[in-house]
Design goal:
- By secondary structure, the protein is of the alpha/beta class.
- It folds into 2 domains: about 170 residues, 3-Layer(aba) Sandwich (Peroxisomal Thiolase, Chain A, domain 1), CATH 3.40.47; about 140 residues, Peroxisomal Thiolase, Chain A, domain 1 (3-Layer(aba) Sandwich).
- The chain is about 30% helix and about 25% strand.
- It contains 10 helices and 13 strands.
- A 5-stranded mixed β-sheet has the order 1-7-6-4-5, sandwiched between helices.
- Strand 12 and strand 13 form a beta hairpin.
- Helix 3 crosses helix 4 and helix 7 packs parallel to helix 8.
- The chain starts with 7 loop residues before the first strand and ends with a strand.
- The structure holds acetyl coenzyme *A (ACO).
- Acetyl coenzyme *A binds next to helix 2, helix 6 and helix 7.
Protein backbone atom coordinates (compact mmCIF):
# COMPACT_ATOMS: atom_id res chain seq x y z
CA UNK A 1 0.00 0.00 0.00
CA UNK A 2 1.38 3.44 -0.84
CA UNK A 3 0.70 6.30 1.47
CA UNK A 4 -0.91 9.25 -0.28
CA UNK A 5 -0.13 12.75 0.94
CA UNK A 6 -2.69 15.53 0.80
CA UNK A 7 -1.80 18.37 -1.59
CA UNK A 8 -0.16 21.27 0.22
CA UNK A 9 0.59 24.83 -0.79
CA UNK A 10 4.33 25.59 -0.87
CA UNK A 11 6.20 28.90 -1.23
CA UNK A 12 8.44 28.22 -4.22
CA UNK A 13 11.41 30.43 -5.15
CA UNK A 14 10.77 31.61 -8.72
CA UNK A 15 13.19 34.56 -8.84
CA UNK A 16 16.34 35.86 -7.17
CA UNK A 17 18.21 39.15 -7.62
CA UNK A 18 20.73 41.34 -5.82
CA UNK A 19 22.35 44.73 -5.83
CA UNK A 20 25.65 45.90 -4.38
CA UNK A 21 26.64 49.57 -4.45
CA UNK A 22 29.71 50.04 -6.67
CA UNK A 23 32.02 51.60 -4.04
CA UNK A 24 34.27 48.99 -2.43
CA UNK A 25 36.07 49.68 0.85
CA UNK A 26 38.97 47.26 1.38
CA UNK A 27 40.77 46.44 4.62
CA UNK A 28 43.76 48.33 3.20
CA UNK A 29 41.54 51.41 2.85
CA UNK A 30 40.53 51.10 6.52
CA UNK A 31 44.19 50.86 7.57
CA UNK A 32 44.59 54.46 6.37
CA UNK A 33 42.05 55.89 8.82
CA UNK A 34 41.94 53.39 11.72
CA UNK A 35 44.34 51.66 14.08
CA UNK A 36 43.72 48.28 12.42
CA UNK A 37 45.33 45.88 9.97
CA UNK A 38 44.18 43.69 7.11
CA UNK A 39 45.74 40.78 8.96
CA UNK A 40 43.68 41.39 12.16
CA UNK A 41 40.41 41.75 10.23
CA UNK A 42 40.96 38.69 8.02
CA UNK A 43 42.16 36.49 10.86
CA UNK A 44 39.32 37.40 13.27
CA UNK A 45 36.46 37.70 10.77
CA UNK A 46 37.38 36.52 7.24
CA UNK A 47 36.31 39.92 5.85
CA UNK A 48 38.50 41.40 3.08
CA UNK A 49 36.23 44.13 1.69
CA UNK A 50 32.71 45.54 1.91
CA UNK A 51 30.49 47.67 -0.37
CA UNK A 52 29.40 51.13 0.78
CA UNK A 53 26.28 52.94 -0.51
CA UNK A 54 26.87 56.21 -2.36
CA UNK A 55 25.62 59.55 -1.02
CA UNK A 56 22.66 59.36 -3.39
CA UNK A 57 21.79 55.77 -2.45
CA UNK A 58 19.41 54.79 0.34
CA UNK A 59 18.15 51.44 1.60
CA UNK A 60 15.10 51.76 -0.66
CA UNK A 61 17.38 52.49 -3.65
CA UNK A 62 19.37 49.29 -3.07
CA UNK A 63 16.23 47.28 -2.31
CA UNK A 64 14.42 48.49 -5.44
CA UNK A 65 17.40 47.49 -7.62
CA UNK A 66 17.43 44.00 -6.05
CA UNK A 67 13.62 43.72 -6.37
CA UNK A 68 13.73 44.59 -10.08
CA UNK A 69 16.52 42.03 -10.63
CA UNK A 70 14.51 39.32 -8.84
CA UNK A 71 11.36 40.14 -10.84
CA UNK A 72 13.34 40.06 -14.12
CA UNK A 73 14.79 36.69 -13.09
CA UNK A 74 11.23 35.41 -12.50
CA UNK A 75 9.92 36.90 -15.75
CA UNK A 76 7.37 38.85 -13.70
CA UNK A 77 6.52 42.49 -12.95
CA UNK A 78 5.12 44.37 -9.97
CA UNK A 79 1.63 43.66 -11.35
CA UNK A 80 2.13 39.95 -10.53
CA UNK A 81 3.06 40.55 -6.85
CA UNK A 82 0.55 40.96 -4.01
CA UNK A 83 2.88 40.99 -0.98
CA UNK A 84 6.13 42.93 -0.42
CA UNK A 85 8.12 42.40 2.79
CA UNK A 86 11.36 44.28 3.37
CA UNK A 87 13.67 43.11 6.14
CA UNK A 88 15.76 46.06 7.29
CA UNK A 89 17.09 47.80 10.38
CA UNK A 90 18.31 50.80 8.39
CA UNK A 91 15.16 52.34 6.86
CA UNK A 92 15.41 55.58 4.86
CA UNK A 93 13.01 57.18 7.33
CA UNK A 94 11.40 56.20 10.64
CA UNK A 95 8.31 55.99 8.45
CA UNK A 96 6.95 55.36 5.85
CA UNK A 97 8.37 51.89 5.41
CA UNK A 98 11.00 50.98 2.85
CA UNK A 99 8.52 48.39 1.55
CA UNK A 100 5.88 50.94 0.55
CA UNK A 101 8.55 53.02 -1.20
CA UNK A 102 9.67 49.96 -3.16
CA UNK A 103 6.03 49.10 -3.88
CA UNK A 104 5.60 52.58 -5.42
CA UNK A 105 8.95 52.24 -7.22
CA UNK A 106 7.64 49.10 -8.89
CA UNK A 107 4.50 50.94 -10.00
CA UNK A 108 2.28 48.82 -7.76
CA UNK A 109 -0.98 50.29 -6.48
CA UNK A 110 -2.38 46.98 -5.19
CA UNK A 111 -1.35 44.40 -2.61
CA UNK A 112 0.27 44.98 0.76
CA UNK A 113 3.80 46.08 1.66
CA UNK A 114 5.48 46.34 5.06
CA UNK A 115 8.88 46.29 6.76
CA UNK A 116 10.03 43.67 9.23
CA UNK A 117 12.82 44.30 11.74
CA UNK A 118 14.81 41.40 13.15
CA UNK A 119 18.30 42.82 12.46
CA UNK A 120 20.61 40.21 10.88
CA UNK A 121 17.89 37.52 11.10
CA UNK A 122 15.50 39.75 9.16
CA UNK A 123 15.59 37.90 5.84
CA UNK A 124 14.91 34.50 7.45
CA UNK A 125 12.08 36.08 9.47
CA UNK A 126 10.67 37.71 6.30
CA UNK A 127 10.81 34.48 4.27
CA UNK A 128 9.03 32.69 7.11
CA UNK A 129 6.39 35.42 7.36
CA UNK A 130 5.79 35.41 3.59
CA UNK A 131 5.51 31.61 3.72
CA UNK A 132 2.66 31.93 6.24
CA UNK A 133 0.78 34.33 3.93
CA UNK A 134 1.32 32.20 0.82
CA UNK A 135 0.57 28.80 2.33
CA UNK A 136 -2.62 30.16 3.95
CA UNK A 137 -3.89 30.91 0.45
CA UNK A 138 -4.42 34.61 1.21
CA UNK A 139 -1.69 35.82 -1.18
CA UNK A 140 -0.22 34.43 -4.40
CA UNK A 141 3.25 35.93 -4.94
CA UNK A 142 5.60 37.62 -2.50
CA UNK A 143 8.65 39.76 -3.02
CA UNK A 144 10.91 39.25 0.00
CA UNK A 145 13.77 41.74 0.23
CA UNK A 146 16.71 42.16 2.60
CA UNK A 147 18.17 45.66 2.21
CA UNK A 148 20.57 47.54 4.45
CA UNK A 149 22.84 50.58 4.66
CA UNK A 150 24.63 49.64 7.88
CA UNK A 151 27.46 52.03 6.94
CA UNK A 152 25.11 54.81 8.14
CA UNK A 153 24.78 53.28 11.64
CA UNK A 154 28.48 52.88 12.29
CA UNK A 155 30.86 54.96 14.33
CA UNK A 156 33.73 55.09 11.83
CA UNK A 157 36.18 55.81 14.67
CA UNK A 158 35.27 52.57 16.50
CA UNK A 159 37.53 49.88 15.09
CA UNK A 160 35.73 47.15 17.04
CA UNK A 161 32.54 47.55 14.96
CA UNK A 162 33.08 49.59 11.79
CA UNK A 163 35.33 47.02 10.10
CA UNK A 164 32.60 44.36 10.29
CA UNK A 165 29.69 45.70 8.25
CA UNK A 166 28.73 46.62 4.68
CA UNK A 167 25.79 47.69 2.51
CA UNK A 168 23.73 45.76 -0.06
CA UNK A 169 20.39 44.21 -0.94
CA UNK A 170 18.98 40.91 -2.14
CA UNK A 171 15.47 39.76 -3.04
CA UNK A 172 13.55 36.62 -3.86
CA UNK A 173 10.15 36.07 -5.42
CA UNK A 174 8.10 33.36 -3.71
CA UNK A 175 5.05 31.89 -5.46
CA UNK A 176 2.32 29.73 -3.90
CA UNK A 177 2.31 26.41 -5.77
CA UNK A 178 0.64 23.15 -4.96
CA UNK A 179 2.98 20.40 -3.80
CA UNK A 180 2.46 16.81 -2.66
CA UNK A 181 3.18 17.58 0.99
CA UNK A 182 6.49 15.68 0.97
CA UNK A 183 10.04 16.93 1.31
CA UNK A 184 10.48 16.27 -2.42
CA UNK A 185 8.29 19.36 -3.01
CA UNK A 186 9.93 22.55 -4.22
CA UNK A 187 9.63 25.50 -1.86
CA UNK A 188 9.96 26.32 1.84
CA UNK A 189 9.73 22.95 3.63
CA UNK A 190 10.08 24.17 7.20
CA UNK A 191 11.12 27.29 9.10
CA UNK A 192 11.97 27.92 12.75
CA UNK A 193 12.30 31.33 14.40
CA UNK A 194 13.39 32.27 17.91
CA UNK A 195 14.14 35.37 19.95
CA UNK A 196 15.28 36.23 23.47
CA UNK A 197 15.12 39.87 24.54
CA UNK A 198 17.29 39.37 27.60
CA UNK A 199 20.32 39.85 25.34
CA UNK A 200 19.43 43.31 24.04
CA UNK A 201 22.53 44.94 25.52
CA UNK A 202 24.94 42.62 23.71
CA UNK A 203 24.16 44.09 20.31
CA UNK A 204 22.17 47.27 19.86
CA UNK A 205 22.02 50.79 18.44
CA UNK A 206 22.26 53.51 21.09
CA UNK A 207 19.66 55.79 19.55
CA UNK A 208 16.13 55.96 18.21
CA UNK A 209 13.13 58.30 17.82
CA UNK A 210 11.59 57.47 21.21
CA UNK A 211 14.80 57.46 23.27
CA UNK A 212 17.49 59.85 22.06
CA UNK A 213 15.61 61.28 19.04
CA UNK A 214 18.72 60.47 17.02
CA UNK A 215 19.74 57.53 14.85
CA UNK A 216 22.55 56.36 17.12
CA UNK A 217 25.50 54.06 16.52
CA UNK A 218 25.87 50.30 16.55
CA UNK A 219 27.33 48.86 19.77
CA UNK A 220 28.37 45.27 20.24
CA UNK A 221 29.99 43.03 22.80
CA UNK A 222 31.58 40.97 20.04
CA UNK A 223 32.91 38.21 22.21
CA UNK A 224 29.52 37.71 23.92
CA UNK A 225 27.67 37.63 20.59
CA UNK A 226 30.18 35.12 19.29
CA UNK A 227 29.73 32.94 22.37
CA UNK A 228 25.96 32.64 21.84
CA UNK A 229 25.90 32.58 18.03
CA UNK A 230 27.04 29.02 17.36
CA UNK A 231 24.67 27.44 19.91
CA UNK A 232 21.68 29.47 18.69
CA UNK A 233 22.28 28.85 15.01
CA UNK A 234 22.85 25.11 15.39
CA UNK A 235 19.71 24.82 17.54
CA UNK A 236 17.36 26.17 14.84
CA UNK A 237 19.08 24.31 12.00
CA UNK A 238 18.70 21.06 13.96
CA UNK A 239 15.02 21.93 14.51
CA UNK A 240 14.70 22.14 10.71
CA UNK A 241 16.34 18.75 10.25
CA UNK A 242 14.10 17.18 12.92
CA UNK A 243 10.89 18.63 11.44
CA UNK A 244 11.63 17.22 7.99
CA UNK A 245 13.48 14.01 8.84
CA UNK A 246 16.53 15.28 6.96
CA UNK A 247 20.19 15.34 8.00
CA UNK A 248 23.27 17.40 7.22
CA UNK A 249 24.14 14.81 4.56
CA UNK A 250 20.90 15.52 2.65
CA UNK A 251 21.76 19.22 2.27
CA UNK A 252 23.01 20.48 -1.07
CA UNK A 253 24.00 23.89 0.31
CA UNK A 254 24.28 25.61 3.68
CA UNK A 255 23.81 29.38 3.26
CA UNK A 256 24.42 31.00 6.65
CA UNK A 257 24.26 34.65 7.69
CA UNK A 258 27.63 36.14 6.82
CA UNK A 259 28.83 37.84 10.02
CA UNK A 260 32.08 36.10 10.77
CA UNK A 261 33.93 33.25 9.05
CA UNK A 262 34.81 31.66 12.39
CA UNK A 263 31.13 31.51 13.47
CA UNK A 264 30.19 29.96 10.10
CA UNK A 265 32.96 27.35 10.24
CA UNK A 266 32.23 26.42 13.87
CA UNK A 267 28.47 26.12 13.18
CA UNK A 268 28.98 23.94 10.09
CA UNK A 269 31.40 21.72 11.94
CA UNK A 270 29.05 21.27 14.90
CA UNK A 271 26.20 20.42 12.51
CA UNK A 272 28.35 17.93 10.54
CA UNK A 273 27.98 19.89 7.29
CA UNK A 274 30.86 19.31 4.86
CA UNK A 275 32.92 22.49 4.23
CA UNK A 276 32.40 22.26 0.45
CA UNK A 277 28.63 22.67 0.98
CA UNK A 278 29.04 25.95 2.90
CA UNK A 279 28.52 29.18 0.93
CA UNK A 280 30.88 31.93 2.13
CA UNK A 281 30.65 35.55 0.98
CA UNK A 282 31.66 37.38 4.16
CA UNK A 283 35.10 37.95 2.56
CA UNK A 284 33.49 39.97 -0.26
CA UNK A 285 30.53 41.69 1.44
CA UNK A 286 31.26 41.89 5.18
CA UNK A 287 28.17 41.64 7.38
CA UNK A 288 25.28 43.18 5.42
CA UNK A 289 22.74 42.19 8.10
CA UNK A 290 19.37 41.28 6.54
CA UNK A 291 20.88 41.39 3.03
CA UNK A 292 23.61 38.84 3.70
CA UNK A 293 21.66 35.61 3.06
CA UNK A 294 20.04 36.68 -0.25
CA UNK A 295 23.37 38.13 -1.41
CA UNK A 296 25.04 34.77 -0.66
CA UNK A 297 22.21 32.93 -2.45
CA UNK A 298 22.83 35.13 -5.52
CA UNK A 299 26.56 34.40 -5.57
CA UNK A 300 26.01 30.64 -5.29
CA UNK A 301 23.21 30.62 -7.89
CA UNK A 302 25.18 32.79 -10.34
CA UNK A 303 28.33 30.65 -10.15
CA UNK A 304 26.27 27.52 -10.86
CA UNK A 305 26.30 25.96 -7.40
CA UNK A 306 22.61 26.29 -6.44
CA UNK A 307 20.35 24.58 -8.99
CA UNK A 308 16.62 23.73 -9.11
CA UNK A 309 15.86 20.75 -6.88
CA UNK A 310 18.75 21.44 -4.48
CA UNK A 311 18.09 21.32 -0.74
CA UNK A 312 19.22 24.65 0.75
CA UNK A 313 19.37 25.55 4.46
CA UNK A 314 19.43 29.27 5.25
CA UNK A 315 20.05 30.56 8.77
CA UNK A 316 20.84 33.76 10.62
CA UNK A 317 21.35 35.23 14.06
CA UNK A 318 21.30 38.88 15.10
CA UNK A 319 20.42 41.64 17.53
CA UNK A 320 17.60 41.02 20.01
CA UNK A 321 18.79 38.29 20.07
CA UNK A 322 16.85 36.88 17.15
CA UNK A 323 17.69 33.72 15.23
CA UNK A 324 16.11 31.41 12.69
CA UNK A 325 16.54 28.87 9.90
CA UNK A 326 14.52 27.76 6.88
CA UNK A 327 14.93 24.67 4.71
CA UNK A 328 14.11 25.31 1.06
CA UNK A 329 13.91 22.91 -1.91
CA UNK A 330 15.18 25.21 -4.69
N1 LIG B 1 41.78 46.04 14.52
C1 LIG B 1 42.74 45.76 15.39
N2 LIG B 1 42.51 45.43 16.66
C2 LIG B 1 41.23 45.38 17.06
C3 LIG B 1 40.17 45.68 16.20
C4 LIG B 1 40.47 46.01 14.87
N3 LIG B 1 39.52 46.31 13.95
N4 LIG B 1 39.01 45.55 16.88
C5 LIG B 1 39.33 45.18 18.12
N5 LIG B 1 40.66 45.08 18.25
C6 LIG B 1 41.43 44.73 19.43
C7 LIG B 1 40.68 44.97 20.71
O1 LIG B 1 40.80 46.33 21.09
C8 LIG B 1 41.36 44.04 21.66
O2 LIG B 1 42.57 44.63 22.07
P1 LIG B 1 43.08 44.46 23.62
O3 LIG B 1 43.27 42.98 23.78
O4 LIG B 1 44.32 45.25 23.62
O5 LIG B 1 41.96 45.02 24.47
C9 LIG B 1 41.71 42.83 20.79
O6 LIG B 1 41.66 43.32 19.43
C10 LIG B 1 40.74 41.66 20.93
O7 LIG B 1 39.42 42.16 20.87
P2 LIG B 1 38.18 41.18 20.99
O8 LIG B 1 36.91 41.98 20.88
O9 LIG B 1 38.33 40.31 22.18
O10 LIG B 1 38.37 40.31 19.66
P3 LIG B 1 37.62 39.01 19.18
O11 LIG B 1 38.56 37.93 18.90
O12 LIG B 1 36.43 38.68 20.06
O13 LIG B 1 37.03 39.47 17.76
C11 LIG B 1 34.97 40.17 16.73
C12 LIG B 1 36.13 40.55 17.67
C13 LIG B 1 35.52 39.97 15.35
C14 LIG B 1 33.98 41.33 16.76
C15 LIG B 1 34.28 38.87 17.21
O14 LIG B 1 34.06 38.90 18.60
C16 LIG B 1 32.98 38.60 16.50
O15 LIG B 1 32.94 38.38 15.30
N6 LIG B 1 31.87 38.56 17.23
C17 LIG B 1 30.57 38.24 16.65
C18 LIG B 1 30.00 39.38 15.87
C19 LIG B 1 28.80 38.86 15.12
O16 LIG B 1 28.76 37.76 14.68
N7 LIG B 1 27.74 39.60 14.99
C20 LIG B 1 26.60 38.97 14.30
C21 LIG B 1 25.43 39.63 14.53
S1 LIG B 1 25.54 41.22 13.86
C22 LIG B 1 23.97 41.87 13.90
O17 LIG B 1 23.03 41.22 14.31
C23 LIG B 1 23.81 43.28 13.50
Amino acid sequence: MTLSHPAKLRSVVVGLGCYLPPRILSNADLEKTLDTTDEWIVQRTGIRQRHIAGEDERTSTLGLRAAKAALADAGLSGADIDLVIVATSTPDYTFPSVATQIQAGLGMTHGVAFDLQAVCSGFVFAVTTADKFLTSGSHKRALVIGAETFSRLLDWNDRTTCVLFGDGAGAIVLEAQEGDGTIADRGVLTAHLRSDGRYRDKLYVDGGPSSTRTTGHLKMEGREVFRHAVAMVTDVVQAGFAATGTTAEDLSWFVPHQANRRIIDASAEKLGIAPQKVVITVDLHGNTSAASVPLALCVARDDGRIKPGDLVMIEAMGGGFTWGAALIRW
